[in-house]
Give the backbone structure.
Amino acid sequence: MRVKIGFACLLVLMMCHPLYALTGREIMEKSDALTQPDTAKSKILMLIHKGGKAQEKEFILQMKKFENDEDKALISFTRPTQIKLLTHSHKDKDDDQWLRLSSGKVKRIVSSGRDKPFVNSHFYYEDLTSIDIDDYAYKLMGEEKAVDADCYKVEGVKQVGEKVYDKVAFYVRKSDYFVVRVDFFKKGKFLKFLENYQIKEIDGILTPYKIKMELANGKGKTELILKGLKYNIDIDSAKFRKEALR
Amino acid sequence: MDRYIRFVLKRPVWVLVVFSIMSVILASGMLHLQFDTTITSFLPTSDIEYENYNRAKEIYGDCDTFVILDITDRNLLQYETFRRINDLIIDLEEFEDFNAKRELQRIAQLDRLLADPTITGEALLNHFIDDPAFKRLLARKFEIISDDSGRLSNRVKRKLKSAVMTANELKSGEMIDDIISPLTAKDITGEDDALETIELIETDSAGNRILPKTLEEFQAFIAKLRRNPVFEQGIYVSDANGKITNLGIVIRFKDMSNSDPIAREILEIVNSHDELNIISQGQPLIYIWINNYMQQDLSRLIPLVMLVVVIIFFINFKSIRGVILPFVTLSMATLWILGLMGHLGVKITTVGTSIPVLMIAVGSSYAIHILNQYYADYNLITREGKTDGLQHAMGHISVTVLLTGLTTFVAFMTLATHEISAISEWGLFSAIGIMFAVLISSSVIPAALKLMPHKAGGARFSNRTGGSSPVIDRIIHLMSVGAIHHYKKVLAVVLVLLVVSFIGLLKIQVDTELLRNFKKDNYIRTSAKMISDKYGGRWGFNIIIDSGKPDGVKCTEYLKTVSDFRTWLVAEENKDLCIGRTDAFPDFLKTMNMAMNNDDPTCFSNPACNMDIADYLEIYSDDDDNSDGRIDQFEPYVDTEFSACNLLARLGENGDTLLGTFGMEHIFKKISEHLDQTLPPGYSFKITGHPSLMVQSAGYIVDGQINSLLLTLVVIGIMILILLKDFKAGLLSLIPMSVAVIFNFGIMGWFGIYLDVATSTIATITIGIGVDDTIHFLNTFRYYRNLGEDINTAIQHTLEVAGKAILFTSMALIFGFSVMGLSTFKPLILFGVLMIITMVATTIGALLVLPCAIKLTKVKLVKTMA
């Protein structure tokens, strides 16, 4: 069982980066250098499709960049529960996470379970963390079509650190170097894939309004639908304090 | 039939060649014979309860089937013991998570090494020193194949590779769902306001368990183990002083519809870790043990039974052909039927293992009657010449054999519609086997006799003027006197015996409890008791409590209902329920609740409000491999709608007494009554699982037994009525069989022999043999009546001819089956005893009761059957 609720980098998924180089490594470096918002607030509908049924969850995600390249994020579920999760992402050490139950009880989440699903969806905690460019060795595999777009296919093979996936394959849209699809491989097996849809430019940042994570065997998928989004707005830093959870 | 016999006698070589070829073709099927030790063959598969069970299995998996390995050691909580336990668990885990890439590499390396003509067993194992799990697998397979660690022969290499590939295939099936043990368990802890998922034994980055070594590390481990109440009696056991004395490994399975290979593999793994003191128990293992006992003893005893039968044939016939021909007939019939089952892919169940015994009993009877006719008509054959004489003799007896075969065929076929597949298959294939025996004996024996020199045996026992066996003659004489002069007294005694037997019949208890098959001091019984005492039960059943609405489980009212019920189940005043432990979905929520309250043990309770339940389920995140909406850990306990919970109750024993079907029936009844009274409106419940199906199957055994006996008697009565064209004769024919069956059941009742799947076939065998004897007697009796003899003389002569053959066959089989007493396996001993009783009862029925009844009714019987 895993209870860690990691989510800080959910927005990273929501803001896939344009890429414009011809080698795998260069593409990823350029991607890494893209502009990101200082703050973000979004309302997200999560649709978990399992066993022929769709379960709805809704949450508000607020994120703010702090000094030393550290991010803080607060996710507040509005349904089916009112739990809140606060994550402080650090550059050189494990993230800190706190959980607030609907009853007001607050607990610090200690363990990490990166290969475990996030709130029983098809996203792993690993999918919600930021990817360091040096974690993978990249190779341009060729050109392929994905999500109705001509793409470069860049393969990333696990290079350093403990990663859930041995290999990932990025499909980078040729027109604007935007990642439209990612294939995830675990223990040599094609496990699942992520696709970005309804990509719009918001305040100069390309943002998919719908993300789908689907199992390779087709047995289930989770969709994230952006119901509202604001970048670079003023969010009180106090909101991201542990004490504010109570 | 006459035309067929004419053909056989005209082309005897052809017949023997064709039958030999047929034997080779069919016997080759024996190489494909498989045994079915799964419980399904004993269950009423079309029953509504079985459908419920399957529905529950679809939702909750095969969760009521598990294996418990109990480990105890003087130095239990020490590194060295833990290292050994860890090795055992690693070996089991190989069958839980299949790593295709790793297995391919292993097999490629094994192939390379086996290609070396000089490789030795020891060198081979040493090559896998860095892969200890695979090395251990090779070592245990190697141990089974060969005890020579020197240079590997090509045969050993082939066998080893085949064993590894079989294990690999089993691994790829990932039949093990979960291995729950102190070394693999995980928990949630919430000390100091920190919520943490922990492994009781932590793992390093490569996934290897870091075993405790120092005293402090063990103390820390024990503290973790004791923190969660769920673990006690689940994966560890303490003594009265609170000292941990046993560690348990519970193995759960995904789908046990074919449990045999994985259960065998688990036993093999356990046996290979003989440095650990392991007691293993579980329903899948019991089936394996029963099967092993059956196969070992049957393969040892069947040849012995045949040998004894053959020796008695020789003593009586004093001729080689008198031994060889019946022996060839019954061997051929056995090979044909078992070979056919192999070719058709029909697996032999535990009941099916009695088919060779049946073939011996009935097959030898056909052969003996045919051979008997040859000797009876010896002078006629001499007079008329071999071909015509044999045609005359064989034509007459073959018709009788065909008729007896047909009636026996019908008797067995009535079982083919039985609800329990093990019995229906037994009925079907026994019936086919009977026809094989008829065909073979009516073809091979006449053909062989045609080719053999016409020679009288040393003892023409059928010659009514000069019997050679004083014992048989004496018995026949007594029968004659009894039937002719004291028939009223005899019938009165039989009537008294029948009344006594009938009282015994009413005492018969039906029991499908498998442990009943083993003696009290047998390891299987003692280990079952030990596991029951320590872990709250040795097997389990499901009690499904449905709230009647989606997400109804996520509600405090529901959780309280389940909690109260669980408390009631294990309460002191309900000790008769024999439930020592229950596992249920609320345990996860209780664990979470305790963690959310700083590991306060008093908070190991249901969450206080529905909101907390919803929150806990939201953050209790884990794999959901089949993406059905439940995390994998919840699957055995809750449905996908979260409307119903499956409560797993572990069922133990009632002190030193086995629960048995009756005990289980009482338990289910009491639970049902309690739930009927206590469940809130809108709630419903179902009880299912193997124990519940065992109770159900007991009902089917009784119903099936009654139905098949009645049907058989009616069909046989009608058949004989048509054959003899005499209503009285039709009724009379039922007397010997009915007497034998009632006598048989009476003995079972008085001596406490339970009616179960295996013993229920005895009644049909009784009828099979009884009908043969009856037809032989009646046919011979009619023959002499047609010659103008009066009833007394006809009875006298019938007893001297048919009676001797019947008695002679019975005696041979009685001695033959007494060999079963040498078995160490209770059901086989009982089977032997019941077969002897059957032989005695059918013989008395045919040779004493039937002539007495003829005498009493003065039935005429004037036209010949054939």
About this structure: Chain A has one domain: 10-245. Chain A is about 5% helix and 50% strand. The CA atoms of residues 68 and 242 of chain A lie 19 Å apart. The helical segments of chain A are 10-14, 24-32.
